[in-house]
Automatic annotation (TrEMBL):
GO terms for biological process: anaerobic respiration. The keyword Phosphoprotein does not apply. Its cofactor is [4Fe-4S] cluster. Residues 34-59 have a biased composition (Low complexity). InterPro entries: Asp_de-COase-like_dom_sf (IPR009010), MoPterin_dinucl-bd_dom (IPR006657), Mopterin_OxRdtase (IPR006656), Mopterin_OxRdtase_4Fe-4S_dom (IPR006963), TAT_signal (IPR006311). This is 4Fe-4S Mo/W bis-MGD-type domain-containing protein. It is found in: Cell envelope. Residues 34-62 are annotated as: Disordered.
Length: 843
């Protein structure tokens, strides 16, 4: 259903009422949930002098001693959604889920869960779930009338194996591509890499370039590990609170009240004790900013300039940690010269960011003097064309002020948390030599490959996510997928990408399987146990790949069956056995057995090199536990696992690697060409060269330009940015759940009152948001907490979300019809979702 005909007159009235009335709805808050064996708190008696009715101290439990609602089994599981990694107590009665509570024995979680946790049950008895493999039998690819018929798993896997072996035998194994997503159980990516190695394809890609790869890349370049540097809660190695002990929280583009509500609540509780200052830098006043001491309304896509200005102020004022810099930092003099020669001053940054110079100076002063101070970032930084360089500049901030390797400090760049590749035993078979380079980083390169044949034409894709919602320039991606030779989609629901598929494969949700499905950003891993039976014929992803390997073994005419079966033992279909292989073969994971984690209330943090090790909270801490971890990681005696063993701002070798793509290791300011202000940009050239961070893959050669080569598009006076609709939603999956659609099924376009008045628009109006790439529909929500030159467009809505029909909701087109796949971070492939030229008109 298109946006243009998605709402009639009655619906329009309803949408207007919804927009205006949303301010009257109660706030969605995290709440504590008592464990099953905890008695209800007693109510305090009312004062005799009280003039009002007595109020209970806590809600009364009306289910107590209910025979029907008393669980006969409680299973320890974990929430499938955001990276707070909440532990769940799943209450069962006769094999059915009757309640979900949070873990009160985890001090960080403190018994709390958010609205999404109870939505886990809506993934089970959901009539829109994919329950059996399906094969296309009719309809044009991508069309709503696409027809599919159920087939068996044997049939489905045989079709895939035949297609891929035929491509391999034709010398085109490199044209087979996989695309993962964050919904996967941990370690599935390692199985995919193993199978693709045996097949001969270098293109087992991940979702990082549409999520948060850039932060991990920057952390690894500067410090040696691409991981969140500090932890939530008490560090068992030192007995000290880690992140909660910060005196200053500097949030760049991260709305944790909606994206990480439970761990954010932990920070807020700690802040009540410490008096720590919280500053949020964001073009709009998010629910996170409402908790802050200061909100800095920065111009979209210019955080990089703000950080450079802070660096210059701290250096000029000599607010650096001289002892740490002299002993542990390489490249500091070069950084000083770089900032000076390029004129990166506070006044320059203020002009670029549209932030008062005094405010930037205050930020620099407070951050440098707080001791310790913690930086937090999320997609707001990752989804910029300068993401890698912005994150790199932030690592310099932490390094020169002594805020690295200390509790309460660090660079806490979210979602880049896993301990690298989970490793399996080495392959015993002689694998084919891969002669073609991997495609350039970023799943959005798919369209370039299919439509333009650069660097070669992709012929088969298996996707574990939904590129039709997550990839930039949706119109172009759809055109490419309609021409894709063979496409396999795996997922919970028949999402937009599934309409382009030749095969649909059903997977399990989190409550249906054992595993370590999600984790905290701080490298903390929690074991979960299956609570219910699998829905239909759904399989967990790791089983699908093991079964596919055994199907390839039956059909491969060039290799004996053992070529595949020895690499994928059937015993690994038991996740506990598969996990044990990961624990045994992955550096610094030997202390993270399933048994140890299953017996813990709190998750266990990597690195954790042996069963007695407490796990590492603060990376790079001068402590024996970190020394043990470094030895297990293959860096004995080092504090930082970089080539030099120190923090590397710049080295000659680093500079040489970046020079191959036309860049330098010391970041030079640039931004999106559609940012207002005619600012410097990185021009992407046609030539493909090795990526300096991912040398097995290619990237565009780039050149710095003081101004865009073409002027900003005329007739598009505003800057648009996309992001999460609210705390109710997580990616597209919650759009298929009744609670998600009921509570936030309308796409509210946020606009400043002055901007709306100039355009003669009112809250509740149906509006078009249009960019040079396309347009999408929504409902206007006038919001004072946003810059007048900026419009916020919620993502995750899509035209296949049929559940909305039951709530009389529109079928919205993807917000990524507005974004441009030509603009991305050349190092990480990170897509530029946080700025596009746009206009808003009444529909």
């Amino acid at each position: 259903m298109s946006d243009s005909n998605s709402a009639g007159p009655n619906r329009r009235d309803w949408l207007r009422q919804a927009a205006i009335g949303s301010a009257l709805l109660p706030a969605l808050t995290i709440r504590p949930a008592a464990a099953a064996d905890e008695p209800p708190a007693a109510s305090s008696p009312a004062s005799p002098d009280s003039a009002s009715a007595p109020q209970p101290a806590s809600p009364i439990d009306f289910t107590r001693d209910s025979a029907a609602l008393a669980p006969d089994k409680i299973v320890d599981s974990a929430c499938q959604f955001c990276n707070s990694n909440c532990g769940l107590k799943v209450h069962l009665k006769a094999g059915r889920v009757i309640a979900i509570h949070g873990r009160s024995d985890d001090p960080v979680q403190a018994g709390q869960i958010c609205v999404k946790a109870e939505m886990m049950t809506e993934l089970l008895a959901n009539r829109r779930r994919l329950k059996t493999p399906m094969k296309r039998i009719g309809g044009k690819k991508g069309a709503p009338d696409s027809a599919f018929a159920p087939i068996s798993w044997d049939e489905a896997l045989t079709i895939i194996a035949q297609k891929w072996l035929a491509l391999r035998d034709a010398g085109e194994a490199h044209t087979v591509v996989s695309r993962t997503s964050g919904r996967l159980p941990r370690g599935v990516g390692s199985l995919i890499h193993r199978l693709f190695t045996l097949l001969g394809s270098p293109n087992d890609t991940d979702v990082g370039p549409v999520c948060n790869d850039a932060g991990g890349n920057a952390l690894a370049t500067t410090f040696g590990l691409g991981n969140f540097t500090n932890g939530y809660g008490v560090d068992p190695a030192t007995g000290r609170e880690d992140l909660g002990s910060a005196n200053y929280f500097l949030f760049f583009g991260t709305n944790q009240a909606e994206t990480h509500p439970v761990t954010f609540a932990h920070l807020l509780r700690c802040r009540q004790q410490t008096g720590a200052k919280l500053v949020v830098i964001d073009p709009r006043k998010t629910p996170t900013a409402s908790h802050a001491d200061a909100w800095v309304a920065i111009k979209p896509h210019t955080d990089f300039a703000l950080v450079l200005g802070m660096l210059r102020e701290i250096i000029d004022r000599n607010w650096i940690d001289r002892a740490l810099v002299d002993k542990w930092v390489i490249g500091y003099p070069e950084l000083v010269t770089h900032l000076q020669q390029n004129g990166y001053t506070v006044d320059w940054a203020a002009n670029v960011c549209d932030v008062p110079p005094a405010q930037i100076r205050q930020l620099a002063h407070d951050y440098a003097h707080a001791k310790p101070a913690a930086i937090f970032c999320n997609a707001g930084i990752s989804h910029q064309v300068n993401a890698f360089d912005t994150y790199r500049a932030m690592t310099f901030l932490a390094a020169i002020t002594g805020n690295i390797g200390v509790p309460g400090g660090g660079c806490n760049f979210m979602h880049n948390t896993w301990p690298g590749d989970l490793r399996l035993p080495a392959l015993s078979a002689s694998v084919p030599k891969i002669t073609q380079p991997a495609m350039p980083v970023g799943p959005d390169w798919f369209a370039e490959s299919i439509l333009e044949g650069k660097p070669y034409r992709m012929k088969s894709l298996i996707s574990m996510g939904n590129p039709l919602l997550s990839s930039s320039h949706t119109t172009r991606v759809a055109a490419a997928f309609s021409q894709l030779d063979f496409f396999v989609y795996t997922g919970l629901f028949p999402e937009e990408s599934g309409l382009f598929a030749d095969l649909l494969l059903p997977v399990c949700s989190g409550l249906e399987m054992d595993g370590v499905y999600m984790r905290r950003d701080d490298r903390a891993i929690r074991w979960q146990s299956a609570a219910v039976s699998r829905v239909g014929d759904a399989k967990p992803d790791w089983e699908i790949w093991i079964d596919l390997a055994h199907t390839l073994a039956k059909l491969d005419s060039k290799n004996p069956p053992e070529y595949w079966t020895n690499a994928f033992p059937l015993a690994w279909k038991d996740y506990r056995q598969l996990w044990q292989e990961f624990v045994q073969h992955t550096p610094a994971m030997q202390g993270m057995s399933a048994e140890r984690m299953a017996n813990r209330a709190e998750p266990l943090r990597w690195p954790c090199p042996h069963p007695q090790h407490p796990g590492v909270s603060t990376l790079y801490l001068d402590h024996p536990s970190w020394g043990e971890a470094m030895a297990a990681l293959g860096h004995p005696g080092k504090r930082f696992p970089t080539p030099s063993g120190k923090i590397e701002i710049v080295t000659p070798e680093m500079d040489r690697r970046f020079a191959t793509m036309g860049s330098r290791a010391l970041p030079r300011f640039h931004t999106h060409p559609e940012v207002i202000g005619n600012l410097p940009v990185m021009e992407h050239r046609p030539e493909l060269v090795p990526n300096p961070v991912h040398p097995h893959a290619l990237t565009r050669k780039i050149a710095w330009r003081p101004h865009p080569s073409t002027p900003r598009p005329e007739g598009f006076p505003l800057m648009g940015m996309i992001g999460r609709p609210s705390v109710v939603h997580f990616a597209g999956v919650t759009q298929w759940l009744p609670t998600g659609k009921q509570r936030n099924g309308v796409r509210f376009i946020q606009m400043h009152p002055k901007t709306a008045e100039a355009a003669q628009l009112q809250s509740g109006d149906r509006v078009w948001v249009e960019s040079p790439r396309g347009k999408i529909e929504g409902t206007l929500l006038i919001w004072e907490g946003i810059r007048p030159d900026t419009v916020f467009v919620p993502s995750t809505f899509g035209p296949a979300q049929s559940l909305g029909d039951e709530f009389d909701l529109p079928r919205y087109q993807s917000a990524n019809h507005l974004t441009d796949d030509r603009y991305f971070d050349a190092i990480s492939g990170q897509q530029a979702y946080k700025c596009f030229a746009c206009r808003v008109t009444k529909a």
